[in-house]
Amino acid sequence: MNFQNTLQYAQELDKEDPLRSYRKEFLFPKVNGKKVIYFTGNSLGLQPKKAKEYVDEVMTDWAELAVEGHFQGKKAWWDYHERFSAKLAPIVGAKPEEVTVMNTLTVNLHLLMVSFYRPTSKRFKIIMEEKAFPSDQYMIASQVRFHGLDPKEVIVEVKKREGEHHFRTEDILQMIEEVGEECALVLMGGVNYYNGQVLDMKTITKAGKEIGAFVGWDLAHAAGNIELKLHDWGVDFAAWCSYKYMNSGPGNASGCFIHEQYHNRKDIPRLEGWWGHNKERRFLMEPEFQPEPTAHAWQISNAPILALAPYLASLELFEEVEMPALIQKRDKIVAYLEFILQEVAKEVGGDFEIITPKERGTQLSVFLHGQGKDLFNYLMKNGVITDWREPNVIRLAPAPFYCSFEDIYEFGQVLKGYFGKE
Ligand SMILES: *Cc1c(COP(=O)(O)O)cnc(C)c1O
After folding, report:
1. 267 exposed, middle or buried (CB, 10 Å; 0-12, 13-18, 19+)?
2. Binding residues
3. Alpha-carbon distance 411 to 368, whole Å?
4. Of 305, 321, 337, which closes a domain?
5. Which of 120, 128, 161, 230 could make a disulfide contact with 235, Cβ separation 3.0–4.6 Å?
6. Contact (Cβ atoms closer than 8 angstroms) between residue 311 and residue 249
7. What does the pLDDT look like over 369-403, one tens digit per residue?
């Protein structure tokens, strides 16, 4: 692509963008009366306009129907969560019955580890990546201690090589081979939150399965961002939050994938509750638990309808647009961002080292040699919302649903302004 660093060129790209009309489906914060340039869709996606309508609908049903809303609501509450499965399945590459929505991400990873981490004296190790998202580190270590084991003896971390910013697939595969029959579980982030790297989930899953381990993925930064084929890759389980690329609202519900081979299996334990009980018999209040024959068996409590409503609104946009179109725009807009960064670096004599490898989704992580948090603050003040990670990295994620090519061009201008000011 022969990109150009001009406003006119960026506007041309916007005109050709098949997704351009979706920008107006989202609400943008404003700085100095202008819509911000929002590069933190990897942290909290923007609010879809439709979200409020969906929440209002629940509020109205609650006001007008009260308890009858469980069955008489415009979208009945008793099986509200089931509406998500068919919409999420194509986003993560699953069968609808393999997907459910419940709780929040770290909670779900805990629940899934109850099912899929059952250490024995011979097979007890867990392979993960170094410097995983802190919640994942705490979650895994606490699970290990819960089993009476020592995290230092159980958790094996794949490391980046000296001087490199990304993980090498070959190093992960070698680690899997080395740990071999002692490995109970491989559990990693499908897209690394820090450097934006997309791991080769297909190959790693296959290798983990070959040594007889379970393989699970934290897809917080992957769901709604990259192509996923969880079923075909033979992934055992996965979970993701919905408030990042999926635009469902702060702290909102998590999605779970549980491969169909584990449905209806008595040898796979679960922590159970009434919402996982056979739906036809749920309200008979019987003493014996009868699991749903799907991923819904992992449900525990009745669903938080007010929280789920905006997620459902957001998923309807995904249903209209579908992942391939998002991915196509993503690749182009991220490539344009990379180009603009390079152009600005040349003009101002700056050094912006992109540490995200070519296996990437929406996010570019940029190492700012010498530029401290000042730059981040300057961008903020000038209406560019980015994300700062210690010690010296900004993360830029122009979500294809609502970011424009003009945003990218304007970002370059603001960035130049910072250096001009110096
Ligand atoms: C965002 C994120 C989380 C957040 O977990 P919550 O339980 O939703 O607070 C967990 N893991 C990863 C990898 C993340 O990126």
Report:
1. exposed
2. 105-106, 133-136, 218, 221, 243, 274, 302
3. 16
4. 321
5. 230
6. yes
7. 777 788 889 999 999 999 988 778 999 999 999 99
How much distance in Å is there from the Cα of 64 to the middle of ligand 1? 36
25 lines ligand 1 (CB under 6 A): no
> Which CATH number is 83's domain given?
3.40.640.10
Same-domain status, 303 and 327: no
Q: Rounded mean pLDDT of 11-38?
A: 97
DSSP 8-state secondary structure symbol assigned to residue 400: T
Q: How far are the Cα atoms of 44, 85, 99, 133 from residue 251, in angstroms, in the given order?
A: 9, 20, 19, 16
Annotated binding site for pyridoxal 5'-phosphate: 105-106, 133-136, 218, 221, 243, 274, 302
For the chain, helix (H) and strand (E) counts, in that order, are 14, 17
User: Mean pLDDT of all residues in the chain?
Assistant: 96
What local confidence, expressed as pLDDT, does residue 419 receive?
87
Tell whether 225 and 287 lie within a shared domain: yes
Q: Which atom of ligand 1 is nearest to the CA of 241?
A: 8
**Do the domain assignments include residue 40?**
no
Report pTM. Answer: 0.97
Does residue 231 form part of some domain?
A: yes
The whole domain housing 378 covers 7-17+322-420
Is the pLDDT at 67 greater than 60, yes or no?
A: yes
> Which of 109, 241, 362, 389 is the best mutation target for the ligand 1 pocket, counting ligand atoms within 8 Å of the beta carbon and taking the most?
241
Q: Which of 270, 290, 321 is the last residue of a domain?
A: 321
pLDDT band at 414 (very low <50, low <70, confident <90, very high): very high
